[in-house]
Amino acid sequence: MVEVVAVYESLDTSAPILDKLTFVSGLSLNTTSILGERVRGAESGAVAQLATQSSATEIEIVYLTQNKFQIGESITFEESNIVTNLQDITTGSFLDISNKYELDKGQKLQYYDYSKIVRKTGLPAPARQLLIVHNSYQVPANDDGDVYTVDSYPQERFTKDIPILPNGKRASDVLDFRPRVTSAGNTNVSTVAGSAVNPALSTTIDIDSDGSYVPVPNKTFTSDVTRITMSYNIFNIQVDSNIRE
Fold first, then answer.
1. What pLDDT shows up at residue 113?
2. C-alpha distance from residue 170 to each of 149, 153, 160, 163 (Å)
3. Cα separation of 176 and 126, whole Å?
4. Phi–psi pair at 227, nearest 5 degrees
5. CA proximity to 199, closest of 214, 212, 182, 216
């Protein structure tokens, strides 16, 4: 987990209900939209993250701005490039308690542990169900690599989403062979109902079908490295407009 988008507490004995947007038929939003992408309102200036694909015409969202969407305005899905008018809005049922928690990203020197939210000191514990919306990196099931490098992270994530190791180094600045604990929750689910409820902690390490490889002392490791060599030059512009180095 690299970012907590929202922590919502229920207002009753049921699970929290997210805000819902309804669009015209024919868009097949349950397959054409992208989980986690941002949706933007042309007139309201509202921005939200797509949290669930409820149906072919409905999505559930988490607002990222104070501005709210307006019925009838043009909505742009930023990654799937869908542009359509908003037909209806259904207000959710929840209490936003996101500011009561901090994120522990689970970065250990020896392995990737579970991320978790930690309640800030002195704040009361919640009394009802919580719904946590978050962004996280997922390693494809068909990925057979054993090391993460700077090329493992998309460029748009370099500002704030690169994991920081306990020694203060950015994970993109090292050859990262750390194994990760096996996920106990559901990933890439399209609805709240499909998400994991109180997943049990796992003590096993996630290992590819071809095994897990980590470097050990006194062994040879071979890798290609590309670097940029900086060059500093001084130029002198003379009165006759000639440039001399």
1. 85
2. 11, 12, 10, 6
3. 37
4. -135, 160
5. 182
